[in-house]
Amino acid sequence: MPWLKVLHIATLLCWCASLLYLPAMLMASARARTGSSFEVSAPALLRFVFTHIATPFALVAIMSGTLLFVVAQLVGGWLVLKLAAVSGMVLCHVLCGALIVRLERDRRRFLMPASALVAAIAATLMLAVLVLVLSKPFD
């Protein structure tokens, strides 16, 4: 079981990092730029990070967390709140994907404030998960 906790924590850290990185990269890409020296466009790089890095880490974090919940037979009011916060993080993940599609279609209107809002909500939910897991209120 310790290896399962390590897997869950490691993949959760990588997923959370990508949830903060993607909106920051979206905000940087939303600015109109002329003539970039990079060969790979920002939307292509964003899509790569989203599909090949963030999403696999999210899936492994959720699967290992579910397995940990089943194996350890965790029960408590804090767990319901934690799962609600994780569901919010999944929604932020999906919104990042939608914002990447908007950027690819060159619909930059409201892209910066939406990205900032997604980052703020994701960070708040991450903090909520951390507090709930460490303090385990309602137990």
Spatial shape: elongated
Q: Could you describe the largest sheet, including whether it forms a barrel? A: none
Number of strands: 0
Taking pLDDT < 50 over at least 5 consecutive residues as the criterion, the unreliable ranges are none
- Terminal residue distance: 22 Å
Structural class: mainly alpha
* Rg for CA atoms: 17 Å
State the helicity in percent bands: over 70%
H/E element sequence: HHHH
Proportion in β-strands: under 5%
Number of domains: 1
Write a structural description:
By secondary structure, the chain is mainly alpha-helical. The chain has one domain (2-24, 41-135). It has four helices and no strands. It has helices spanning 2-30, 42-72, 77-104, 111-135. The mean pLDDT is 90.
List the helices and strands and how they pair.
Elements: H1 2-30, H2 42-72, H3 77-104, H4 111-135
Main location: membrane
Subcellular location: Cell membrane
GO biological process, one term: protoporphyrinogen IX biosynthetic process
Q: What is shown here, in short?
A:
Belongs to the HemJ family. The chain has about 140 residues and is an all-alpha fold.
Task: Record keyword descriptors for this entry.
elongated; 139 residues; 4 helices; 81% helix
